[in-house]
Amino acid sequence: MRYLPLTPADRAEMLATIGAGSIDDLFVDVPAAARKADLFDLPLHAGELEVERELAGLAALNRPAGAGPFFCGAGAYKHHVPATVDHIIQRSEFLTSYTPYQPEIAQGTLQVLFEFQSQVAALTGLEVANASMYDGSTACAEAVMMAQRVTRRKKAVLSGGLHPHYAATTQTIAHAEGMDIVRQAAAIDAEAAVLDAIDADTAAVVVQTPNVFGVVTDVTKIAEAAHAAGALLIVVTTEAVSYGLLKSPGEMGADIAVAEGQSIGNGLNFGGPYVGLFACREKLVRQMPGRLCGETVDAEGRRGYVLTLSTREQHIRREKATSNICTNSGLCALAFTIHLSLLGETGLRQLAALNHAKARELRDALAAVPGVQVLTPRFFNEFAIRVKGSAAAAVEALLADGVVAGVPFSRLDPSAGLDDVLLVAATETTSTQDIQAFAQALAGRTA
Amino acid sequence: MTMLNVGRPTRPEGAAESAGHASLTGGRGLLQDEPLIFELGGWTKTGVDLAPAAQDASDLGDLVRSAPIGLPGLSEPEAMRHYVRLSQKNHAIDLALYPLGSCTMKHNPRLNEKMARLAGFADLHPLAPQSTVQGALTLMDRLAHWLKTLTGMPAVALSPKAGAHGELCGLLAIKAAHEANGQGHRRTVLVPTSAHGTNPATAAFVGYSVVEIAQTEDGRVDTADLAAKLSPDVAAIMVTNPNTCGLFERDILEISRLTHEAGAYFYCDGANFNAIVGRVRPGDLGVDAMHINLHKTFSTPHGGGGPGAGPVVLSAALAAHAPAPWVVSGPDGLRLVEETVEEAAQGFGRMSAFHGQMGMFVRAYAYMASHGADGLRQVAEDAVLNANYIKARLSPVMSPAFPEGPCMHEALFDDAWLDGTGVTTLDFAKAMIDEGFHPMTMYFPLVVHGAMLIEPTETEPKHELDRFCEALIALAHAAKAGDVDRFKGAPYLAPLRRLDETLAARKPKLAWRQEA
């Protein structure tokens, strides 16, 4: 087997050094009843060629996003990632290293994490960011639980504009910790409704902008209302490229900002691995979940970086930790940081403007299709439309024309009664021809 | 014209006699001193060429940001050089043995990387129409089949994103099962003192109180203490097996019997599954839930701290409570069930926005298919053989924490052998860096004084194990011979010397800021 270097002669020599008669002697502590003598009922080992054939065969059964006109968003976005990013993240020293617990021989990873934290803090307009979470949805759940620790209150209000899968994840995880999660009904322009639900028991208000229907909202007034009641405002973003065009969460008064960072540096990967961004006000830092990288000096006074404030974390604090998270999304954070270094402020602003312009072009084309109603008044690169009949059926029908038309809202929340709502996204990868193909196919169907 | 026959010197005359000195600029041979991207001066620079936007953002009015973000940019050559220079300051499994106990730093096959990058997997949207992702669903289904077969368990939840996320999934399933059975009042989780920190942290996260179980002299769960603490208030026990001392829990069948008799569930931390894969099925040990770190046993790269993947296998008692989504087969092929209310009203909810770490599933599946049933069994055998070989070779100079009997996939030493030398476990570990090795896991598990936990994995050849053992033996002799400076000042030869962690925590500087 090509990954196993020991030869039969090595094994015999090593057993002799150990003083064991056979390999079975090393497994004597396993109860006899639990020892499996036979091979499991699975295929035997296979060469690289055979494995590659099997997997390439499975991959060929899928239709990649890049295969034709494609308009799905709803929390994961198709963007172009520069070739440099994938080359660097495949370097052995990044790919095959562990969490940087020995800082003297992990300065590469640690400096990248410091750069990542600095970039995320700048994007969100907040003072500090951690070294990443699993993804945006789990970061959202962690933010709600952090608000409980900060305010010592139990209630969280989730806006009806929050991605339903983020709301479900938060409900599952935060409810288990004993929180009272108030999930508001899904609605296109849902944000203002949270104002009525804020009271003296509220730990956190969670709003998303752009929201799941694409609506961009200035949340400043919600921040003021939350703060007046002693609650924290958590702002969620599922499309990190929007930071390049829109006011930052910090600028609008957010206490915690969480986001899905997949759009920058990371591919779609059928939903994972992604990278959760998590930033907050400096005064809240000791209640943050996850790893933090900080600057320090070495024995000779040279600048260096270490994991720090680890007294918040599970390996030190055990049951009193701020979170149970250990492994996070290091390599995805590296991809994010490289891509964002290549973009820089100039490139990110251009990319965001380009995404917005493509979405406006898509909006204009779809609005002209008879029977289609655009529901989202102001958007970044994604918006909702109403179609005649079921949006899920429309998506299936348009597949026959080679167009992947978007995400039916019913797939995210079947009980919302919004079966005719379709979420559509455009990015820099969307061409005018793609948009025309979509509009024509939709017109052909609704005619 | 004549050729000059006195060219450049070709012998290192005099070089050997001259003393070393620090460089003038901070650079050191192949190692460059590298500033932060924020200090490279690229406030207007970009390394991408984008088409101009055809429309402006006037429709968004004052929702548009006006203040600068504060992001530096690099051209492509600058970015390449910056990150390659940084990479050279990392240790990596591709450079040398990486003996972190409990972390399973094995070789990461590049076939797996290539497969995960096929457009049919990498460029697949999680919410694309299900008729367009049948190959991906088939892969998830095959991965599930392998995991269920290898563990002898009837169900698996694929969505957890790492080990600790898997622990959370397992405990939430246990909580849901208790609630469904009228046992929702159970509030306690029992955890051995040797457990990973994530175990008590997860139990507390789910709202349980944590009670520790004592350990026997020979490094195992004290079953008498367990029996005494198993009350009607106990919801579950969380036991790592093989445990964090690198030992198999000999009384595991008794542990699961006692647990089930008390009406509690048995959560097994599967971090050390590498030691038994292909030889022992956790289902035969009475396990109700166990996470599998695909980034340990199944070789997906650690990436400097993730991403991982932590699928959770579940017993028949817990299977109905698995979180959404899961894959089922129907008349039109495979299908994802994305709402727990749809087909199993007892599902406890959702672990994350989408279906799990698909990129890791592809890599882990490529690894499993490469090894097959025979290769995976050999993995466990060679991992255990390598650890016992290290234990045998180092025991004459270091003190094994549990000298009697074999260890499993990792060898645990305490610091008794350093008594009187003035050298601590930390000093010894830092001196290993100068010899070109990554230190072992230190000061864990907490039950062993000055613990040094060495896990070589099965992908180390014998000559690398020998090189490693000889380095440690030489260091041990140096410590005992009173060569204390070698340890106290170590590392001397790493990119940086020892770092001041107290300073970092006392005055946290967590992001770059423009100097005022």
How does this structure look, described?
The complex is a heterodimer of chains A (447) and B (516). Chain A has 447 residues and is α/β, with parallel strands linked by helices. Chain A contains 13 helices and 13 strands. Chain A has helices at residues 8-18, 48-60, 83-89, 92-95, 107-124, 136-151, 164-176, 220-228, 314-317, 330-367, 391-399, 409-412, 432-446, and strands at 128-129, 155-158, 180-183, 202-208, 232-237, 256-260, 276-280, 292-297, 303-308, 373-374, 382-386, 407-408, 421-425. Chain A has a seven-stranded mixed β-sheet, sandwiched between helices. In chain A, strand 10 and strand 11 form a beta hairpin. In chain A, helix 3 (83-89) runs antiparallel to helix 10, helix 6 crosses helix 7 (164-176) and helix 10 packs across helix 13. Chain A starts with 7 loop residues before the first helix and ends with a helix. Chain B is of the alpha/beta class and 516 residues long. Helix content of chain B is 33%, strand content 10%. Chain B has 15 helices and 13 strands. Chain B has helices at 76-87, 110-116, 119-122, 134-151, 163-180, 198-205, 223-229, 252-261, 316-319, 340-343, 358-394, 425-434, 462-480, 485-488, 501-506, and strands at residues 155-157, 188-192, 209-213, 234-240, 265-269, 289-291, 312-314, 326-330, 333-337, 399-400, 411-414, 441-442, 452-454. In chain B, helix 6 links the parallel strand 2 (188-192) and strand 3. In chain B, helix 2 (110-116) runs antiparallel to helix 11 (358-394), helix 5 packs across helix 6 and helix 11 (358-394) crosses helix 13. The longest helix of chain B has 37 residues, at 358-394. Chain B is globular and about 100 Å long. The model of chain B has no long low-confidence stretch (mean pLDDT 94). The chains are: A alpha/beta (447), B alpha/beta (516). The interface between A and B is large, with 205 and 208 residues.
